[in-house]
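WARN retry 2 of 3 for item q-0093 after timeout on previous attempt; input resubmitted unchanged.
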Amino acid sequence: MDDSRTEANLSDVMRAVGILYRRAARTFEQDRTSLPVGIRAVLELIAFTTPQTVPRIAETLLLSRQLVQRNVDHGVDLGILELQDNPAHRRSKLVYVTAEGQRAIERVLQRERELLAATRERLTEDEISTCLYVLDTIREHTDWRPVTEGGRLVSDDGA
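OK item q-0093 returned
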């Protein structure tokens, strides 16, 4: 195997992921049926797992607690997220999805499926599975934690 070619291909994969992410973020943020990317990430995580604390959400999404807290607060203001007491910790509330939040994430995912329909017709199930395998392997074998300086985040602009 040509290591330099593999390295270049992996760089191309990361570049393509970045372009795709930015295009999706722009599309969904401009779509009136959608949500800002940060709120969507929190909402999707909670909707498909279990209620979690802000620190746990931040750890899972590899974002700063402050950024997640702002998104949670915005989600609460929108009525799609709610905070409830946490029996395991007095001060750290659990973030829950409201019924409106569940409907919102379902609308977003439906819109995403509509936008991906043309792509779905051009790809086989094996090609999609291979793509997921490659992306999961990159994610699992790469340290994507934010760069810190003296224990503080230098930047938390990414998702």
